[in-house]
Amino acid sequence: MFLLHGTPGSHQGPRPRSLVLYQLGIHLIAYDRPGYGGSTRSPGRTVVDAASDVVDVADVLGLDRFSVVGRSGGGPHALACAARCADRVASAAVLVSLAPPDAPELDWFEGMTESNVREYTNARENPTKLQSTLVRNADAMRTDPMALLSDLDDEMPDVDRQIVADAGIRAMLHQNFRTGIEGSADGWIDDALAFSKGWGFDPGEISVPTLLWHGEHDAFSPVEHFNWLSRRIPRATVVLQPSAAHFAAVPVLPKVLGWLREQTRSDATKSTA
User: pTM of this prediction?
Assistant: First the structure.
């Protein structure tokens, strides 16, 4: 299974412990998107480009079939894999994802935090200001990788504050952020630009088994984005958690990986029947 990290993030992105993965029988593969961590920047990349990146990694590893899971900023990229690589992707799961910026009948900014509204507005209208802001934020995070969460604290619902207060989760987020922006803010900038223009595919193309998971109180990826994706993707399995928000996608990941595993086993059974 490929784990596509959030924004900002890296291959170190929050993931279950090795023992949990062993018990699930899952080999989890992660990589840095272009511009993050050790990956070269790809200027002008779009969301759909992630599909070919994942296929390239799978080919190198000799994997014909695989599943994908994306959390937050990794969600759109996982959707791209599911849409464009149906012959390779056995199942997909997307947690607390945004919807495309050109989604019909969706007020894209409604219910979104002020910081995200500013970031994505700059991505659309003033890329130079976006770059200067995220470069400054990345510089602060190199001194204190948790500076991002500190800045977002006032905008977080209480349920998110409780989750990120957990020492284990904070340690994972610390490593994830530190690795992602250690060289530059390029990946972060390019993610924001990619989310704010056409994704290069329609989520309605997706035909593989797909799970959409969302917290009802999410203020970073508002719930109407989930509702739009739920209507758009045929036969998607949808889970809306009433008591959860954005960061609840971290502790729920093992359960989601279990769902992906079961879908893959079902697919294998049908193939041999």
Answer: 0.95
Residues 6+ apart with CB under 8 A from 90: 65, 66, 67, 208, 209, 263, 264, 267
Contacting residues for 80 by C-beta, under 8 A, at least 6 apart: 47, 48, 49, 50, 51, 199, 200, 201
Residue 8: asked if its preceding bond is cis (omega within 30°), the reply is yes
- Give the three-class secondary structure for 93: strand
Q: Taking the CB of residue 17, how many other CB atoms lie within 10 A of it?
A: 11
- Give the pair of three-digit tokens for residue 69: 């899971």
d(CA 113, CA 134): 16
List pLDDT tens digits, range 183-201.
999 999 999 999 999 999 9
Q: What's the pLDDT tens digit per position in 9-56?
A: 999 989 999 999 999 999 999 999 999 999 999 999 999 999 999 999
Query: Is the sign of the CA dihedral 74, 79, 81, 84 positive or negative?
Result: negative
CA distance linking residue 61 with residue 59, whole number of Å: 5
The secondary structure element, H or E, covering residue 29 is strand 29-30
Whole-angstrom distance, CA of residue 47 vs CA of residue 80: 7
Q: What is the pLDDT of residues 139-159, one digit of tens each?
A: 999 998 888 888 888 999 999
**What residues form DSSP beta bridges with 259?**
none
Let me know: does 123 contact 195? Beta carbons within 8 Å: yes
Estimate to the nearest angstrom the gap between the alpha carbon of 193 and the chain centroid.
15
Strand partners, 30: 3
